[in-house]
Amino acid sequence: MNLKKLSYIFFALVMGVLASCSNNSGVADITAFTISGGTTTISGTNISVTFPFGTAVTSLTPTITISEGAAVNPASEVALDFTNPLFYTVTSEDGLTKNYIVSVTVATEVTYYIGDTGPAGGLVFYDRGRYTTGLARNWRYMEASPTDLAGNELQTIVPDVVPTDGTYTLSDGTNITGDIAYNANAVAINAALASASMGDIVATGDMLTTIVLTFGGAYVLTGHSPIVVAGDVDFDASPTVARIIGGGSPATFAWSNITSVLVGTNTGIGQGKANTEAIMAQAGHIYSAAKACADYSVVVDDVTYNDWFLPSKAELNKIYTSGVDLFSTSPHWSSSDIDLVSVWYQNFYNGSQNDNGKNLIYPVRAVRYF
Questions:
Q1: DSSP labels for 91-154?
Q2: Is this prediction's pTM over 0.90?
Q3: What is the topology classification, in CATH, of domain 3-106?
């Protein structure tokens, strides 16, 4: 190949690279603009974000995606006051700029009546009469999930002492694993379960602390026996095995895996969310009826609602007295504890509220403020 031809090839390659660079370096676009809880529309250089009624807009944090190599001012993830429209300037890699205007609107108030379907698809059971602005929780209504929560059946295995040697096996009464090392992690435990035709059981944790087994597949609602632990693991005694969430329909949940500590939760209207957070904040918390509610999430009209909680004693009673047809006659947990070992529950057969042990299992109904 002669020198002249090589020169042409080199020139073509350079021009191709320069053309590729120029395709990106002059672009100054906002390709996505999201704020949690809002619905965004981008039309040219106009961006509009709509929020539900009652949303405070004085400190909103947008997440902004822009063209490769470009920069945006104000920057992404910076909290700003969107009471009035704001300008965002995108500067491309080669210095070209484009201005966007962002307008935030809050939906007008919608009136709900007891028994209506709420924004998250639940049933409205309480109206306190007005929104209270300026509070961390600016809400007027409460809605309850349309059904009792579903739940996987769980079992914990807790060593009486921390093992330092040995192996153990797990058995469902029909199948049994091979020997599992005392310090095996969840990956190794699950591999042993799968090899023993017990792959529908998923383990988290380990025998050095606590193993939590989640039952799925063929084990769901079959009334099976608890998993049995055996072997020569260095225990002073056999590990404590506790069945913590029973099968059946509806699913039933233990109030908490911590059964002898006073959380000090409250009983009033407006206290359920704080109660739920306090229950889950306990040292050593693994599972609870409160966590089942906090983990509940639904998507309605492209909006994710994940702010559910276990109702307080008074909030649970409001569901009963509202006349909204939500429940069977089953007792249901509240988030209000009484002492070290007792907690309030509501009987939906006659409306009575009674106390029972935190180690027992009842159905739960998640609720939320809006």
A1: E-TTS-EEEEEEEEEEPPP----TT-B-TTS-EEEEE-SS--TTSSS---EEEE-SSPPP--EE
A2: no
A3: Immunoglobulin-like (2.60.40)
